[in-house]
Amino acid sequence: MLSLPPVSLDELRFALQASWQPDTAYQSVDEPGNPALGQCYPTSSVVQWFFPYFEIARGRVDTGSSIETHFWNVDARSQSAAHVDLTWQQFPGGSRVLDYELLDRDKLGDSPRTALRCNLLLSRVRKRLAG
To answer: Which one-letter DSSP state was computed for residue 106?
Structure first.
């Protein structure tokens, strides 16, 4: 088992961005100039692995031309419910969250393909952080 020292959210952000590939994206989407596209769920899963107090949020985002399902993290320990979204840049300016719910980490029900994408991203991030 690879043991890692504590990591900051900024360090994790850089490791995630360097680890995103089409094989970790939803439906292997690959859009030049938009590396975060399709990476939201595996990214939120990796953030939760490193920061267990973050829950995964699933919400709807209005991009101005469509309504998209999106995932990010929420620290629900406080009344302010701090949101951390390391893939928001996939959306055009002016996009907005319409609503969201926090997912029960014990009942995520990931498909085998989704679990593979999350595990692949986690493995790459852990290796990158280990140097």
So the answer is: G
Q: What angle do CA 44, 114, 78 make, to 5 degrees?
A: 25
Domain ranges of the chain: 9-130
The yes-or-no verdict on residue 12 having pLDDT over 80 is yes
Give the DSSP H or E segment for 16.
helix 9-19
- CA 24 centroid distance within chain: 11
Whole-number average pLDDT of the chain? 94
- Amino acid letter for position 7: V
Please list, in sequence order, all residues whose beta carbon lies within 8 angstroms of the beta carbon of residue 87, skipping any fewer than 6 positions away.
Answer: 36, 39, 40, 43, 44, 70, 71, 72
Q: Which of 44-48, 76-80, 89-93, 111-115 has the lowest average pLDDT?
A: 76-80
Q: What is the mean pLDDT of residues 38-60?
A: 96
End-to-end C-alpha distance for the chain, whole angstroms: 15
Of the candidates 131, 121, 123, the one whose C-alpha atom is nearest the C-alpha of residue 87 is: 121
